[in-house]
Structure formats: C-alpha cells, structure tokens
Design a protein that fits this description.
The complex is a heterotrimer of chains A (170), B (224) and C (258).
Chain A: H1 10-37, H2 39-42, E1 51-56, E2 65-75, E3 78-90, E4 96-99, E5 111-112, E6 122-124, E7 129-131, E8 149-155, E9 158-165
Antiparallel strand pairs in A: 1-9, 2-3, 3-4, 5-6, 6-7, 8-9
Chain B: H1 2-13, H2 16-24, E1 26-27, H3 43-62, H4 73-82, H5 87-114, H6 123-145, H7 150-164, H8 170-178, H9 186-218
Helix pairs in contact in B: 3-5, 5-6, 6-7, 6-9, 7-8
Chain C: E1 35-36, H1 37-62, H2 87-92, H3 103-119, H4 121-124, H5 136-158, H6 162-168, H7 186-192, H8 194-197, H9 217-226, H10 240-257
Helix pairs in contact in C: 7-10, 9-10
Classes of the chains: A alpha+beta (170), B mainly alpha (224), C mainly alpha (258).
C-alpha cells in the first residue's frame, strides 16, 4: 500500500464492484421475464379491425336490414368465433349507419318495426323498449341510452364494420 | 433419543438462543385477557395470522384440482365442489377466509390506530402493516376472478374498466393486468392466477416476516 | 456474547437493556403480572384460536361457498357486483363528483388521499400522546373515514336482492345438447324464442337457459303464451297445434340433455 491518499479506498472499490455485479445479475435474470410480462402492452391492438359483413353498399337502402357475420376472436392461444349482427341503413344525409341490435336495457335483441303498433322504430320484445330510426332511445321506455353504433368503412363496394361504440345518453 | 438429536444439532448450529428468544420473553399483563378481559383486542393480529395460515393451506390444496384455463376453470371448481369429498369445505374455507381475513385485518388496524400504538418508535411497522393490507386486498381482487363464473368475470371487467380510466397510463395498465387490450379472457385468467398464487403471496410473506421481526425487536406497545 | 436467559431486555423486546437509544419504555413502569410466552401465554392464544376455528368451520359448513354459472361474456344483462370489501369504492364511483368528467376524483384522488393518509398516519399524527382524546383530529378523521366507508358499503348493498341474484345465477352443470333442427317444433322455436333464449337453448341477455327447466308441457305452453317473471306475454302467437310442436321440441331437447 502506498502512502498516497487514495481517491477510492479498496473497500469502497469492492463495494462498487459488488453493486455492479449484483445489478448485472439482477438485470440478466429479470430482463426477459419483464419483457415477457409487458408483451401485451407493446403488441399492436387487434381491436378495431374491420370485417367484411357480406353486404354490397349498393344494396343498402334507407330501410334498415339486418346483417350477421362472424369474427375470429383471438385471445392468445384461444380462438373463438364470435357472432355479430347489425342493422344497416342509409340515413337522411345518405350516410351509412350500422346499429348494434343489443338493447341497452338488458341486452335483448331489438328488431326494426318489430311491433306493428310502432312503425319506423326499433322494438325490443322483452320490455317494450323502443328506439327511433337513428338508434336514439325513446323517452319513457326502459332503455337508458341509444343503440351502439358500429364503425364502418367501404372497400371495393363492400361494407366493412369495426367495433361498436357506446353513445351518450339521449 | 430426541434430546440427543437436539443436542447434536444445537452443538453445531447453536439453535437454543433462537427459540428461547421467542419462547422466553415475558408477556406483559396489559395484553393478557386473563387479567383484563378488554385485552382481547390484542388477539386480532394473531387471528389475522391464523386466517392467513388457513388461506395458505386451503389454497395449496385447491390447486390440486384447479386449472387456470377459461374452458376448464369453472368446470374444475364445479367438480371439486360437487364431486370431491370435502371439496366444498376446502373451497368454503378459502372463500370465507378471504372475507374473515379482511375483517380481522380491519379490527387489528383499528386497535393499533385507536391505541396510538403506531407512534414512535413503531412508525415503520405501521407502514409495513398498511402495505400488508393492500397486498391482502390485491389477493382478494385477483382471487375473485379465478372460479371464472359470471360474478367473477363481470366484477373483473368493472375493475379493469376502472384501471383504464387512470390518466395517461390507463390503457397500458389495463392491458398489463388483463393480458390483452380488449378481451378479458384466457390471458387474463392466467395472469390473475400467477399474481394470486405467486407474486402477491411472495410479497405477503416478505412483509409478514418484517412485521413479525419488528414486533419481536420493539416489543408490544405499553398500556395507555 | 451473552446468550439465552439472563440477558436483560427492554420490555418484551429483543432490544438489550444496555443500549438506551430509541427504545420504548420498560414495562417495569407498569408493574403487573407478566407471564412467559411459551407455554403459558401461547396456550391461551391457542384456546382463543380454537374457539375461533370452530366458529369459522361452522360458517363454512352452514354456508357453502357460492358459485355462479360459467362466465358468459355475451351476457349483457348481468349486473356486476364486486366482493363486499370493494363495494365502497364501487359505490363511490356512482356519485356525480366522482364519475364522468370527475372520474379521476373517484378513482385516484379520494382513495389516494384516504389510503395515503392511512399509510402516513404516524407522521401526520406525530404528537407524543397516545390516548384518543389527546389526538382528536386523527381520531375524528378515522371515525369519519370509517363512517363513510360503512355508509358507502351499506348504500351499495342495500338495494341488491341477494336471494334473487343467487337464484338467477345458479351454476348449470356443463352439458352438451344437440339441437335437432329437423324437429317439427324447431322452426317455431327459431321464429319465436331463439332471439332471447339462444340457438342452443342456452339463454342469454335477460332470458334464462331452457335446459334443465322444471316445467310440465302445459306450463311451458302457458309461459309461451302468457309470459312469466320478466318475460312478457304473447311471445308465441301461433296456433295451438304449432304451440304443441314447439313445447314438444323443448321437452325432447331437455330429455336428450339429461
């Protein structure tokens, strides 16, 4: 040992080295597990993908018609087919609207003019819930919010629908 | 014979002081319900630990039948509850234990709070205790999903929607918990299983060890 | 070093009496009847534990742990309810100041303040006095917190009809039914019932499954005509012969499922 004043004592140096080696071991052990755990966050979301519902745009009229299609839902290793349906029509501005048929009251299935007493409305048979053509719930019937509205796009003359969006209270 | 084995071990690793530390300390009068009946409030901490032991044991045995998979989780719980002898009881112990442990934890916390036992020098142990409370609530939340019945599924859905509303990191937080950005499904169940069975119990054991070592080191707080 | 008995400690701790910094008061200030932890005191603790265990086991025997039907993500009619110790948080989010645009208040600010204060209680309430009347602010805050949590839990649970809930969500043993689409009643089922009760009689939405129902043919026919519980009347409006075929379809499907 020299008599010179040392900047870093031998003991300090060993402590730093120990910390460094410990950090290296912790990092080596944890990098892969942590990357694995956060993988779902970094994966691009598959939601919002559009599916061809098998309906040509020129066939869409101002009269709502029901379309049914199936999407492949992939949940990791678990794949399932999920059935979806929508009521599709053109509104007064010639815009395409695709409404979810799920009643916002208790989840029954509504149908267009499902009751002869209420023309030009969507009707839910479970509790007489009714909606106007644009999906807005009719005040005084059980539903509390409008029917959900699907995202849509048109490609090669075919209608593609995405996910159903909740709309605010009427 | 036993004495000889004990002596043999003690000669080598000197275990006597370890157990004598625990066995020989004097328990003061003010925590002893035999002398003052009101001292039963000091039992809540011990009873919390007792229920935790019940939870650990019943949980270990439940995993002999349980499968964390969305197609089979519910079926395995249904099977162990209806077909396996005493399965109903073991699941009952785990289910009710989860509620009872929260009650005991609350009573223990209130005892410590209203007696002011968290004051100097026991601040650190109080904080460890509050962290234990959080871990326990986390165990409750993750365990609730595992039977994969409607109640479990929709409660978890709500919980995850709440997580999603956290500003800035909400979406990531939800995905991190659920394992998928949209679906509460197969990956959510395995994640919650891992958290419930490995991650949180690990944290629980570590915190409990600190909690108990600090109690031994500082002793129980004096009478008011 | 000095080991085992004979060492002097402060109180019942392992802090040696020779060290004097930061140590709690010795119990000798409160003269009393101390007793050894092992076996005297532990025996009493275990007796209390035994009584507790008996009570606990009685609870588990008297109330089998509940299990509802297998999770069905398409069941939009299900009203979710968390476990009871989260009910207060769930209820909090129903208030206007804690939901909608102020949801941050409900999910972060209020719970954060409450639990943060709990975690840091020893530093917020750092006076020397331990008796409740010597620290009124801390005690009042805790009482207010307790009252609001109890109230929120009560408000959340009070309007729940637990019995109906349990009844409606009974677990149905896994069964695989094959739907005989050739059956002459199937067309009527498809037309009148399927939108609510599902393609495989599994139920969905607000409607229960039709497998394992405990009704006679007449009763089923009556329900189809006149409704039951939340099911409205006149779901089936065809002729009586058609109704008979429909009922036969439901019953044969049920028989085959058993």
């Amino acid at each position: 040992m020299s008599e010179e004043k040392q900047q870093v004592s031998r003991r300090q140096f060993l402590n730093y080295t120990l910390t460094g080696v410990g950090g290296f071991m912790a990092a080596g052990l944890l990098i892969s597990p942590i990357r694995m755990a956060i993988d779902p966050v970094l994966k691009p979301s598959s939601a919002g993908e559009y599916a061809n519902v098998g309906l040509a745009v020129e066939d869409i009229t101002t009269e709502p018609q029901r379309v049914d299609w199936k999407i492949d839902q992939v949940d990791g290793w678990y794949e399932s087919k999920v059935s979806k349906s929508a009521w599709v029509f053109k509104d007064d501005n010639d815009e395409i609207m695709a409404l979810s048929p799920t009643c916002t009251h208790l989840g029954c299935v509504v149908s267009w003019e499902g009751n002869d007493d209420h023309p030009n409305q969507f009707y839910c048979p479970c509790h007489d819930g009714r909606y106007y053509k644009d999906g807005t719930n009719i005040e005084g019937t059980p539903p509390t919010r409008p029917l959900d509205l699907y995202d849509h796009k048109v490609e090669n003359g075919m209608l593609y629908l995405g996910k159903a969006n909740v709309r605010g209270e009427a | 014979m036993l004495q000889k084995i004990y002596d043999w071990i003690d000669e080598r690793i000197d275990i006597t002081p370890i157990w004598r530390d625990i066995a020989d300390h004097e328990v003061p009068e003010h925590v002893n319900p035999a002398h003052h009946f009101s001292a039963f409030v000091y039992c809540f901490g011990g009873l919390t630990f007792f229920v935790v032991v019940i939870q650990i044991l019943s949980g270990m045995f439940l995993t002999m039948y349980y499968v964390p998979d969305i197609e089979n989780a519910w079926k395995s719980v249904y099977y162990l509850q209806t077909e396996v002898a005493h399965g109903q009881i073991v699941r009952g112990m785990h289910h009710w234990g989860a509620s009872v442990v929260v009650v005991m934890l609350l009573l223990h916390t209130l005892r410590v709070f209203f007696q002011g036992s968290y004051k100097k020098p026991r601040e650190l142990n109080w904080m460890v205790g509050v962290l234990l409370f959080f871990v326990m609530l986390g165990l409750g939340f993750t365990g609730y999903l595992l039977p994969w019945d409607n109640k479990a599924y929709f409660a978890t859905q709500v919980g995850l929607e709440i997580a999603e509303q956290v500003p800035f990191i909400g979406d990531q937080l939800k995905t991190l918990l659920a394992g998928d950005s949209e679906i509460v499904g197969a990956q959510t169940l395995t994640r919650f299983f891992a958290i419930h069975v490995f991650f949180l119990p690990g944290a629980l054991f570590a915190l409990m060890a600190v909690h108990f070592i600090l109690i031994r080191r500082q002793g129980i707080s004096g009478p008011l | 070093m000095h080991k085992g008995k004979g060492m002097k400690f402060v109180g019942d701790s392992r802090v040696t009496a020779e060290r004097t910094s930061q140590i709690p008061k010795d119990y000798s200030e409160y003269p009393g009847r101390t007793e050894a932890f092992w076996p005297n005191f532990l025996l009493k603790e275990w007796l209390a534990g035994s009584v507790f265990l008996v009570g606990f086991l009685c609870l588990t025997l008297a109330h089998p742990s509940p299990l509802e039907g297998i999770a069905d993500p398409t069941n939009a009619a299900y009203i979710p309810l968390p476990d009871w110790y989260f009910l207060f948080l769930y209820e909090l989010l129903k208030y206007e100041f804690a939901s909608g645009p102020y949801v941050i208040m409900g999910i972060l600010v209020l719970p954060g303040l409450a639990f943060g204060a709990l975690l840091l209680a020893p530093f917020l309430d750092n006076g020397p006095g331990r008796r409740p009347h010597q620290r009124p602010i801390a005690v009042i805050m805790m009482l207010l917190g307790l009252i609001s949590v109890s109230w929120l839990t009560y408000a959340s649970a009070a309007h729940v009809d637990w019995e109906t809930r349990a009844e409606e969500n009974k677990p149905i043993p896994p069964s695989s039914v094959e739907i005989d689409t050739e059956h002459e009643g199937y067309a009527f089922y498809e037309e009148n019932c399927m939108s609510c009760h599902g393609g495989e009689l599994e139920g969905g939405g607000a409607a229960p499954g039709l497998i394992g129902i405990d009704y006679s043919a007449e009763e089923i026919a009556d329900i189809a005509r006149n409704g039951i519980n939340t099911m409205p009347a006149d779901q089936f409006t065809g002729s009586d012969e058609d109704l008979e075929k429909l009922v036969d379809f439901i019953i044969t499907t049920n028989e085959q499922a058993e």
